[in-house]
Amino acid sequence: MLTQGETPYYRPIGQEIEIFEHAYKNKLPILLKGPTGCGKTRFVEFMASKLGLPMTSVSCHEETSAVDLLGRFLIQGSETVWQDGPLTRSVRSGGILYIDEIAEARPDTIVSIHPLTDHRREIFIDRKNENLKAPDSFILVASYNPGYQRGWKELKPSTRQRFISIQFDYPNKETEAEILSQETGISSSVSSKLVKLAEKIRNLTELGLLESCSTRLLVDAAKLISSGLPSRLSCEVAIVQPLSDDPDTIRSLKDLVSLMI
Q1: What is the pTM of this model?
Q2: For residue 222, which of 259, 178, 159 has the smallest C-alpha distance?
């Protein structure tokens, strides 16, 4: 859980801050759509700090069940004790519940949160026979990567249409270079080279990468460079290796790094 403290650095690329504030005011759930590592999670952390709200984050996977989110009974000694799940705790206390990669969760899990996304703003905990209403301070925010999920796992229209949606993408070159410098303290010349490298990789469709070079990977490389690790080695371990396990693809990416860095 993220509590109020130092505001994390976030560079807006559109009107997402204004949209979030109005959604919170009107008690509307938000769906953040965009590629991996483009700043969706950082944006939510920034808004939690800006609005002074606690933030509970849940990362979904194919085994995430409704019980994982809502809670379960546990045996403690001779007693059976109920333990709230992260969704239930967040609804009780208010603040931001951030469900990351919601499309990864099982369909029955996603359906279990539907009552939170309409005028009811409530959840029913059947194991306790308890109906729990969200306070005014509660907002549900979810994210997913529609490009990655397409053809494999997609959100049903009945779920998507319960949210207002904000589209995220990688920033333009100038903004991305600014983010790298602000996040890591590297020089503008180094940040510009990293951004140019990312742009080149993102355009190399013939490599068949499942995910492209994200801003997150660039920040990782910039941190390593800033701490003194050689630039090309930093790019290899923070960008090249995370992007692929295929030897030929890795070789091509390493050649590109040697050419541009």
Answers
A1: 0.87
A2: 178
